[in-house]
Design brief:
Oligomer: homodimer
Protein name (chains A, B): Enoyl reductase (ER) domain-containing protein
Number of strands of chain A: 15
Largest interface: A-B, 32 and 33 residues
Helix content of chain A: 10-25%
Number of helices of chain A: 9
Structural class of chain A: alpha/beta
Order of helices and strands of chain A: EEEHEEEEHEHEHEHEHEHEHEHE
Shape of chain A: globular
Strand content of chain A: 25-35%
InterPro entries (chains A, B): ADH-like_C, ADH_N_2, GroES-like_sf, MDR_fam, NAD(P)-bd_dom_sf
Low-confidence stretches of chain A: none
Largest sheet of chain A: 7 strands, mixed
Mean pLDDT of chain A: 96
Keywords (chains A, B): Oxidoreductase
Pfam families (chains A, B): ADH_N_2, ADH_zinc_N
Chain lengths: 343, 343
Amino acid sequence: MTKEVSNKQVILKHYVTGYLKESDMELKNTTIKLNVPKGSSAVVLKNLYLSCDPYMRYRMRKIEGSYVESFIPGSPITGYGVAKVLESGDSNFQKGDIVLGRTGWEEYSIVTATQTLFKIHDKDVPLSYYLGIFGMPGLTAYAGFYEVCSPKKGETVFVSAASGAVGQLVGQFAKMLGCYVVGSAGSKEKVDQLKSKFCFDEAFNYKEEQDLDAALKRYFPDGIDIYFENVGGKMLDAVLLNMKVHGRIAVCGMVSQYNLEQTEGVHNLFCLITKRIRMEGFLVFDYYHLYPKYLAMIIPQIKAGKVVYAEDVAEGLESAPSALVGLFSGRNIGKQIVVVSRE
Amino acid sequence: MTKEVSNKQVILKHYVTGYLKESDMELKNTTIKLNVPKGSSAVVLKNLYLSCDPYMRYRMRKIEGSYVESFIPGSPITGYGVAKVLESGDSNFQKGDIVLGRTGWEEYSIVTATQTLFKIHDKDVPLSYYLGIFGMPGLTAYAGFYEVCSPKKGETVFVSAASGAVGQLVGQFAKMLGCYVVGSAGSKEKVDQLKSKFCFDEAFNYKEEQDLDAALKRYFPDGIDIYFENVGGKMLDAVLLNMKVHGRIAVCGMVSQYNLEQTEGVHNLFCLITKRIRMEGFLVFDYYHLYPKYLAMIIPQIKAGKVVYAEDVAEGLESAPSALVGLFSGRNIGKQIVVVSRE
C-alpha cells in the first residue's frame, strides 16, 4: 500500500501583469502518493534544488506559439530542478539516481516526460551546480559566447547582468580566450565580485551612471567588439552607440524588460547599418547537442579552480517566491537557487 | 587658353534638422575652368546623370567617425553620378570615357580622387542604369540578399520600400531563387507595379493598413523567413512579431527614420531571442569585390529581359533638390535619378 505524504507546492495564482510580486504566487499544502501510477513509465522525484531563471517571468503571461508554454494558473510553477528518484517506471532511471530536469516547485513531483530528465553521474561537485554552471545557464554562456559571438583573442567584450548565472561565466570564458572584458551589474558588492572573484578587467554599477554612453566610452575608448546582451532597453541603446565596425551582439536575455507591459523602445538600431553589426538571438535549446562536450570541459575546470561560480541560496520552498521576485530587482548575487531538501 | 564656362551647382545651405526641405539647398551660378590643374592627376567631368539616395540625408547632419563624411555646408552636394571625361590627368582615363563614381551636384566637376571612378565599358544599356541596377543600389540588393540573408529556395521573403532602387531588385532576385515574395510600398501605383512588372507574389500599401501586424499575418500566415529591411520603425516592430524561427533580417536602410530628430523606438526585439533571429546590418562598400561578378551576371539578364528596372527621372539640375526631398515622402516610383545632360 502506498503511503500518502504531505507535499507543499508553490502555485501561480493567475497570469501576471506588470512587476512580479510574491503575492502572485501562493504556498499550498497538498498530499501526494509516492508511487508510479500503474502502467505508467513516470518517475517519482523528491526535489532537492530548484532553479530561479528570468525566462520564468515570460511563462507567467499568456503565450502562444513560442519556445515555451505558459504556466498554468492554479498549478505549481515548473522549472529546472535537481531531484532524487524515489520510484521509477522508466528503465533508464533507478531509485536513488540524482537527475536534472524539468520538475515542479513542490516537495515531490511525478514526472511523465522522463525524456527531459538527465541522469547526473558526477556527484563529486555541489549538486546545485547542475542548475547553474553545469546546467542550462552554463551551456547558455558557452554556446552564446563560442557559437554566437564568434570571439577572437584580443577582442573587447562587454557583458551586462555580468554577475548573474550566465554573465559570470561569459566573462570568465572571454578572459580565458584572451579578451578584454568589462561587466555591468547593479551593486557595489557585485562590481567588486566581478573584478576580484571573476577576474573581469573592469566592472561598473549601471545604477550609479547618469550616462551609460559615457560609461561605456570610459571603458571602451576604441569600442566594443562583442556585447553579450542580458538586459535590453537603455543599456542596449547605449551599447549600439559604442560598438565597433563588424561587432557582434549575442542576445541572450532582456531581463530589464520582462516586467514591463510596454517595453522600452530601442532607438539606435541605425548603428547596425553604419557599423555592420550582427545581432543574433539564441536559445540554449538549440545547443543541447553540445552539452556532453561542455560538461566534459567545465567539470574539470571547476575542480581545478580555473573557473569559479557564485550562487545565491534561498533556504526552503517557502522562500522560493521571494527568490524568484528578487531576480528582477537584482537582489541575488550569482545564480539564484532554492534548496528544498539537501538529501 | 582654358575657357571658363558657367557651372550651375546645388549647394547644401546648412546642416539639416528634421524633415529635409528644398529650401535646405540652393541653386548657385558659378563658373569653372575646364582644365586639369597643372601637375594634377585629376579628371574634368561633365556630369550626365546624378543619383538620389536615401543615405544622402544622413550626410546632411554633422557626423563623426562613420562610414561616410558630412556634406560641407556652402559646398555642392556630392554623390554617385555618371559623367563624361572632358580632360584627364590620370592615364587610366581618356577624354570621351564614360565613368561612374563620386561627383558633385553641378554641371562640371573636377575630381581628384580618381581611384573612386569606374570606367563604364558596356554602353549598350541606358547609362543611367549605372546609378541603379548596375551601380550601388544593384550591388546592395545582390550582396544584401545573397550574402546577408542566406536565402533558400521556397522561403518566404518580405521587402519593404519594395519599389525603390534596391527593393525592386531584391524581390526579383528572390523570385528567381524560387522564394515567395511580398513587398510593401506607399501607393496603389507602386503596389500594382510590384505585382505586374516585378512579379512579386503579393504587395500591399502600408499607408492603407491600420494594423501592420495584421497585414503581415494576412500575407504570411506561417511567418517570414527573410526580411529585407529598408524602412525601420513601426514596420520593423510588426515584422519582428511575424518572423519565423531562425529567420534573418538584413538591415539595408531605415528610410522612415532619417528625417526624425528622435527616432521611433523599436519594442519587439525580444522576438530576436524567442525566434532565434539573426539581424545584420550591412553596407555595400564591404562588397565592392563582388562588383565585376555582379555586373557580368546582371547586364545579360537586363538585356534578355529576365530582370527589369524602373527609374524615376527628374529633368535638369534645377529639379534635383525636389527629387531628393521626394525620396522621403515616397514620391518617386523606382530609382530616382536626375538628368543633368544626356550627352
